[in-house]
Structure formats: structure tokens, C-alpha cells
Write a structure and sequence with these properties.
Number of helices: 17
CATH superfamily of one domain: Tetratricopeptide repeat domain
Keywords: TPR repeat
InterPro entries: TPR-like_helical_dom_sf (IPR011990), TPR_rpt (IPR019734)
Radius of gyration: 25 Å
CATH architecture of one domain: Alpha Horseshoe
Number of strands: 0
CATH topology of one domain: Serine Threonine Protein Phosphatase 5, Tetratricopeptide repeat
Order of helices and strands: HHHHHHHHHHHHHHHHH
Protein name: Tetratricopeptide repeat-containing protein
Organism: Polaribacter pacificus
Pfam family, one: TPR_19
Structural class: mainly alpha
Shape: globular
Oligomer: single chain
Largest sheet: none
């Protein structure tokens, strides 16, 4: 009994020391990973995070950082995988949900992005505006209208959503022939010739981006000439130029137009994302990753 008691007491400090050493090693690798990410050495950061994962498996913080670093290396399969692992541990982790949402959005996986945004909006009603717009942009008008009506009942409509609701009601009360005319690109072009209003131009660019690349390019360029203080037209023109593989000119347009972005983090993030496409087209992968990182960071802090 005395020997057994003595052995038990001796083993406690050993176990405590091992745990302390393990924790200290974990912290050293984790903070080194953050330091390496800060200087854009994402692959080195991943090596340290993998050590953390060995020392303390299933840490949400580690899995989140692994996802972010793989995303910055444009390795989206790994980025998505680690984000999903983190969400298994903490399904309602706001930061991981937002991060994975932005990955899906940047990869144009709109279906998955909408599913995540539906979850995010449950605890953050401010995200409902983006959710409504995504519904309408992805042929889910019924869901978009239902959410609009729900937000109206709760008096949570933003100014933009009020305009959208008003426009939606106008469409419902307008005869079908008139709706077709309003939607057609040719009728919008005719209307613009008479008014040359910014609102008409926005409609032309929104429609022509999907339907007619030549018109999109021509009217985006015209928009920069007619409305040189509107950031929207610079972004549209840059998108058109990127599609034409005029990457250098697109980048110059974005750099000029971003000065006119005021208090709109979404739009600023769109500019940086488009810059990443321009840099990628020019073969500058490091700058492309840096711009994508800026875009993701802006969306994360909302």
C-alpha cells in the first residue's frame, strides 16, 4: 500500500509536465502559423498548423486557420474540407460559416452559398438583404418574394429591399406584354438613348452581362465616360475587359474606380476580387492571392 501510494504521487507531476509541454508546443506552433500567414507564407503556416493538429486534434481554431491558408493558396478543395470539419465541431460558428460562404461565392457555387447564408441569416438578420438578392439572381424568385414579405411584416426591410419589393409588386400588376418589353435588352437600349439615365444604364449592364458580351463592354465603357464618379460602371467595365482578356486595362480601370467606393464593403470586396482575376490573367499569382485575401477579409468583418 505504501509503495503504491508513493508511485501514484510521483506519477502526477510527470503527467502534468507532459501536458504543459504539449500545450506550450501547441501554442508556439499556432502563433508561428499566424506570423507566417501575416507575411504571406501560407505553405509554412500550414506546416505549423498540421503540427498543432497532431498535438490537439479537432481544434476549431486550427481547422479554421488551415481552411483560410489553403484558400489563400487557391486550394479550394482542402479549404472547403477543413471548414466543414470545423463546422462538425461547432455547427453555428459564425466566422467559419461566413468564411465557407465566401469560398462558395467566389467559386460561383451559388446553391451551396445560399444554403449557408440561410443559416447565417437566422442569427444575423442583417444578412437577409444579400440572401434576397441571391434568391432573385439564381432563379429562386418565389423564395425571394416570400422572404421579402416576411421582412416587411417584421418591419426589417432595408431601403434597397423596399425598392425591390416595390418593383416586384409593379411587375405583378403589369400586363405580360409590358413585362416582356421592360425586360428586353433592345427596349432598354432604346430607353437609354432618350434618357441616358444612370438607372437605365444599370439595367442594361445587368442584363447584357448575361446576354450580350459586346453590348456589355460597349455600354460599360460608355458608363465610365458618362458617369465618371460612379464606382459601379468601373467595376462593370473591368469585368468586361477581363472577359476580353484585357487584364492590364481592367486592372487600371479598377484602380481608378475604387477611389469612388464610399462606405460599401461589399462593393469594395467585389473590386478586389475582380483585381485578383486581372492579376491572375497577367500571371502574377502572388498579387492575385493578396487581392483575393483582401476581398475575403472585407466580407468577413461585416
Amino acid at each position: 500500500m505504501i509503495v503504491g501510494h508513493s508511485y501514484s504521487q510521483d506519477s502526477i507531476p510527470v503527467a502534468v509536465n507532459q501536458q504543459e509541454e504539449k500545450l506550450l508546443s501547441f501554442q508556439e506552433h499556432f502563433f508561428e502559423a499566424l506570423a507566417q500567414k501575416a507575411i504571406l507564407k501560407f505553405a509554412v503556416a500550414i506546416e505549423h498548423l498540421e503540427k498543432c493538429n497532431e498535438l490537439k486534434p479537432n481544434s476549431v481554431s486550427v481547422l479554421f486557420e488551415l481552411s483560410k491558408n489553403y484558400g489563400l493558396l487557391n486550394k479550394m478543395i482542402e479549404a472547403v474540407s477543413y471548414a466543414k470539419q470545423a463546422l462538425k465541431m461547432e455547427p453555428n460558428n459564425r466566422w467559419v460559416l461566413e468564411h465557407l460562404f465566401e469560398i462558395y461565392l467566389s467559386e460561383k457555387n451559388n446553391k451551396a452559398a445560399i444554403e449557408l447564408l440561410e443559416i447565417i441569416a437566422q442569427s444575423n438578420p442583417g444578412r437577409n438583404e444579400q440572401l434576397v438578392l441571391l434568391y432573385f439572381e439564381n432563379n429562386q424568385a418565389k423564395k425571394g418574394k416570400e422572404l421579402l414579405m416576411s421582412l416587411q411584416e417584421k418591419q426589417l426591410l432595408t431601403p434597397n429591399l423596399k425598392k425591390l419589393l416595390s418593383f416586384s409588386k409593379e411587375k405583378q400588376t403589369t400586363p405580360k406584354t409590358s413585362v416582356v418589353e421592360v425586360k428586353s435588352l433592345s427596349s432598354l437600349l432604346k430607353a437609354f438613348k432618350g434618357s441616358q439615365s444612370f438607372e437605365s444604364l444599370q439595367k442594361i449592364l445587368s442584363l447584357s452581362e448575361k446576354e450580350d458580351a459586346a453590348i456589355f463592354l460597349a455600354y460599360a465603357k460608355k458608363g465610365v465616360e458618362l458617369f465618371p464618379a460612379q464606382s459601379f460602371v468601373y467595376l462593370a467595365y473591368a469585368k468586361a475587359l477581363n472577359k476580353e482578356k484585357s487584364y492590364k486595362k481592367s486592372l487600371e480601370t479598377l484602380q481608378n474606380g475604387i477611389d469612388f467606393v464610399i462606405d460599401d464593403t461589399n462593393l469594395e470586396a467585389d473590386f478586389y476580387l475582380e483585381m485578383s482575376f486581372s492579376y491572375e490573367g497577367l500571371g502574377n499569382k502572388e498579387a492575385a492571392l493578396a487581392m483575393k485575401n483582401k476581398s475575403l477579409a472585407l466580407r468577413t468583418i461585416k
